[in-house]
Amino acid sequence: MAQDVVRDGSTLDSKCPPCAKRNRQLRMAQCREGWHLDTEPAITPDEANEEQRWLIEFRADIQAQHDAAEKAGDDTTDLDAIITGLDEEINAAGMRGNVLGRTTGKRSRSTRRRQDAPDLPKRTMTNTTLGRTFQGADGRIYRPSLFVTLTLPSYGKVRDGVPIDPETYDYRRAARDALHFSKLVDRFVQNLRRVAGYDVQYFASVEPQKRLAPHLHMAIRGTLPRAEIKQIAAATYHQVWWPQADEVVFERTGRSTA
Questions:
Q1: In sequence order, which residues have a C-beta less than 8 Å from that of residue 82 and are 6 or more positions away?
Q2: What one-character DSSP code corresponds to residue 44?
Q3: What span, in angstroms and rounded, lies between the C-alpha atoms of 9 and 257?
Q4: DSSP for 183-249?
Q5: How far apart are CA 133 and CA 222, in angstroms?
Q6: How far apart are CA 150 and CA 193, in angstroms?
Q7: CB 125 within 8 A of CB 197
Q8: I need a labelling partner for 195 at 20 to 30 A (CA). Which of 28, 112, 120, 146 fits?
Q9: Please, is 226 exposed, middle or buried when counting C-beta atoms within 10 Å of its C-beta (0-12, 13-18, 19+)?
Q10: How far apart are CA 170 and CA 180, in angstroms?
Q11: Where residue 1 falls among pLDDT bands split at 50, 70, 90?
Q12: Tens of pLDDT, residues 202-258
């Protein structure tokens, strides 16, 4: 008997191998089909079919019953189970989005920068994903791309993944940078788009170096001057408050029993 697999959209093989494989194949297809486009793709969703409309209408009716029962103080266990099953069917039917819409507040990112961070050039944003074009001597138009590798600084000399001098190796900084590396990448992309002036598209992969520090390989559609890339890297940071851990503040002296 075949068993339906509920997709969770994971990109990590350790979490969901089928979803991770599917997402990897999707990214490969996107890269192959869209990398060299010289016009913006027209993305319009398909019209809902009869089955999809029926699922949404039925889901709305059950939700109304659930809300009325909850307001009256009645048990909603059975209705919750029906709603869960309907949501799975709706997702399997190929519809995007959330039936209930946004259930949490929209995240607002601060654009304030530290005073000691280097200034960056800022271009007026344009609603495009296409990079600049250049005309060759033969009259041909070129739209080059860019490959960037971002590497974390050294924390001390390492041999075979082990610090040569454990006394001077900066373990704390290495651990913090590894924990927050994804946020550094996110901030780098924000700065990149701010400087480029358009919605820069890229494909990237994070890999561990021999010293076990993560570093990023990024293929970018379009190109920027090397000097600007260096400026962006120098101006990228993630502000993190971290408590001091070198002094004991609260010490456990005993164990109480009830």
A1: 62
A2: -
A3: 46
A4: HHHHHHHHHHHHHHTB---EEEEEEE-TTS-EEEEEEESS---HHHHHHHHHT----------SS-S
A5: 8
A6: 16
A7: yes
A8: 28
A9: exposed
A10: 16
A11: very low
A12: 999 899 888 888 999 999 998 999 999 999 998 888 777 767 777 787 777 766 555
Backbone angle region of 73, left / alpha / beta, with phi > 0 → left and psi within -120 to 50 → alpha: left
C-alpha to C-alpha distance for 217 and 244, rounded to whole angstroms: 33
Residue entry with tokens 């990228």: 236
Q: What is the pLDDT of residues 61-110, one digit of tens each?
A: 999 999 999 999 989 889 989 988 888 888 777 776 666 655 566 676 66
Who's near 11: CB < 8 A, 6+ residues apart?
19, 20, 23, 24
Helix axes 171-179, 181-196, angle to 10 degrees: 60
Least Cα distance to 100 among 116, 83, 112 occurs for: 83
Predicted local confidence at residue 257, as pLDDT:
57
Distance of CA 249 to the CA centre of its chain: 36
- Token pair of 133, please? 């074009």
What single DSSP character describes residue 91?
A: H
Sign of CA dihedral 194, 195, 198, 202: negative
pLDDT at 2 over 70: no
**80 vs 114: CA distance, rounded Å:** 47
